[in-house]
Design a protein that fits this description.
Largest sheet: 18 strands, mixed
Number of strands: 48
Strand content: 35-45%
Length: about 950
Amino acid sequence: MRTHSKIIFFLILLFFNKQYAQHHSKMTATVDMGAKYLSVDQEITFYNQTGDILTSIVLNDWNNAFSDRNSPLGKRFSDEFYTKFHMAQPHERGGTINLYIEDQDKNVFTWERTTKNPDYIKVLLNRVLLPGQKLKLHLTYISKIPSEKFTKYGYFEGRYGMHLKNWFLTPARYENHQFIKYSNENLDDSANGISDFEIGLKIPNQNAITTDLVVDDLIQTEKGTTVKLSGKNRTDFDLIIEKESSYRSYKIGDLEIMSNIGSSRFEDSLKTTIINRVADFANTQIGRYPYDKIIISQEDYEKNPFYGLNQLPKFMRPFHSDFIFEIKFLKTYLNNFLKNSLTLDSRKDNWIYDGIQVFTMMNYIDKYHPESKMMGSASKSFLLKGFKMAQTDFNEQYSYYYMLMARKNLDQSLNAPKNSLIKYNVQIANKYKAGLSLKYLDDYLGNDLVSSGIQQFYKLNNESQTERGDFESILKTKASKDIDWFFKYIIDSREPIDYKFGDFSKTKDSLTFIVKNKGVPLVPIPVYGIKDKQIIFKKWLETNEIDTTLTFDRKNVDKLVLNYNNEVPEFNLRNNWKSLNSFSLNRPLKLTFFEDLEDPHRSQLFYVPTLFYNKYDGFAPGISFYNYSFFDKPFMFTLNPMYSINTKSIIGSYALVVNRYLRERRLYNMRYSLNGSYYHYASDAAYFKLYPSLSLFFREPSYRDNRKQAIFVKYNIIFKQPSATVIDSTDNYSILNLKYSNIKTEVTSHVKFLTDVQFSGYFGKVSAEMEYRKLFNDNRYFNARVFLGTFLYNTNNTQNYNFGVSRVNDYLFDYAVYARSDTEGILSQQYFFAQGGFKSFVNPPQSNQWLATTNLSYSLLWNWVDAYADFGLVKNKAMHNTFIYDSGIRLNLVQDYFELFFPVYSSNGFEITQKNYNEKIRFIFVFNPKSLINLFTRKWF
């Protein structure tokens, strides 16, 4: 029997600006947990302490963001390739239904909600609200609670209970003479006005209530649960309803901590010790938590986990279970501590939250785990001792995670609004850079001035609503030096910091040198004197000492190093060394097996085993040598020799790449390359391909826009050995290839436009490809592709350069074809969605004049079984236009990586009933680790 859940609320919210409300609000609720609806009766008492005359009030309604796939929340899910929300059933989504607003005299208020922003409303007042006046709003509506699987908050999937968050309407924050209008984008950064709450709940059956509000009264019987809650000076609260509570309470002085963070089994006394230590450290480093209770949930941690090796499967984790719990609890505790108690605009000033959190975490590790390493206990392994990753201190990893994006030219400034950041920057890069930046400033100023500034700023939050200017003013007042550079270049700019040594001379007693600024930011940087890997001296260079001649006492040092301990978030540490010894390299060469972190102390050359396969070379084991780690570098090279088992010969490839990244431009990356490869294209013949190229990569001004544009200029030089089994196999040729691509891919849609122009002595041709994929409300995909190609001139009498209809004609050797010269056998059935794009082997198979095709598909069962149909016109010289078609079923197991095509009906007739049907089945199978990684990284950046 299906029951209907009903919750009735009576709520008074007290809104104010720059001071705390001194009034109470009341809410009573009757709860039926059988379904996911709350019938709400709410009263808001609004105090106009803004100093402005108001004609309208903005109310946040973030629960309604779950009502529409096209809401800002749905669009963010789509941008990040999160499919669950768009594939969800209607009952799994949330929303606000039948909203009605009136005043205490029963006068109805008109309110407005836009389709673009369905998660806040504008209430038009019947009279102006003067400063100091108050207004009571009475609201009734139904709040439909979404599933927890979208944001970790909502009703529990597969079990009884709810974790309620942002589920009722509340006045928006008022700042700078206006209401802050933010949409719910799954960032936990609601801009609510500060309020007092008084709540009454009535729930049938016995339930466990967990909340960070004060429980004033709790009565539990078999028939129901009644509870009264209250809270003062809050913007939000947590309310968890369960049959049996999953939370355990810890009393730390006057503060009650309730947590259900999962952990492997270890002694409860140790867990209590860890929780006590974290809470005491936060009180000491930041200030006293202003409320009586705080909830630290597993859901909170999973939304913002600590990214690192502790996320590996349990049997692979190099950390003890108690340390993993400690890091999880520390990160989540500080996050909730700051989110609940700071009164900042957490979307606009998110870097302050992140900076204080990570800065405090780093100080905690320095105090309680100073010897811990990034790889935990694995750093002691004999096999790993030579790796930079094993030698890296735990706190050093923050710099590497940030630098990954800086080297890709995808980093964003710390002052960028939180909702404008790409996912990796929201959860990792910007968060870590903010903490590193405060650590940098603290090291530069000394005397723990940043720590004391944080404490003073936190105390100010207990007295008034704050903003970035308050934090900046406190730090500047405490500093004995000018720190305008910190906010100009570290917080408000993404220009890279990069210093190096310039002119240099030495005597027995002195060192004379210049530190040159290679970038735009002019910031202080430390210079170290090193002898036998020991620090002899350290001196901070002020901004006026950069690009000037400096003289230091030598003090028997054998190296000068800038930023030796990486205090400054510098873009390039590899040019910071100057050896004072004759015949000594600044950075000695280090040969490293497999991948490792970039080591600024050494020049690195990596090598890793590889395995290649095609039919003619067979399996070809080899070894790849390269000079880059996880980070892009200005110059990169790869040399990959392999041994072909079938041909008993050496094959392989190489690549030389020069990267030039352009800041603050749509053209953000220019790449110059020289590539070469040598493989067999037949059992008795090989080809050698050499191609210099220029690649231009563009991005939209909004980093979160998934559109990717690129221009490629490539000159292909191909030498082919003659083959006794392949017709026209001795042709050597060179082709100039120009390409333009414009691709935008999300969960809900995919749009692609490609153009390709080729010129050689034999032919000139141009083609264009347009593709569109759409997800409909019934969770089915429709895909349409059009290909148009024509020869501008064609004097060649072979089929080498024709457009392929069913098989891609890969005369440029751009595709990973397993058996490019075969027309029979399972490998010849490999399929590439290119050129004509037909799945059936139809006639004519090629075009030497022009080709026009359309490829259609539509989901039959969810999104992995499709019906497809292809239509086209083929024109060959001295022949009439030929109309061709095919149709069938596609198993879309992993789109673009593993697919199967089963022809049904085509120009050849009803193919299922024809002989050797198994030879007509086509497949896509990509086994390229770098390509497969894109499936996982695309949601991050």
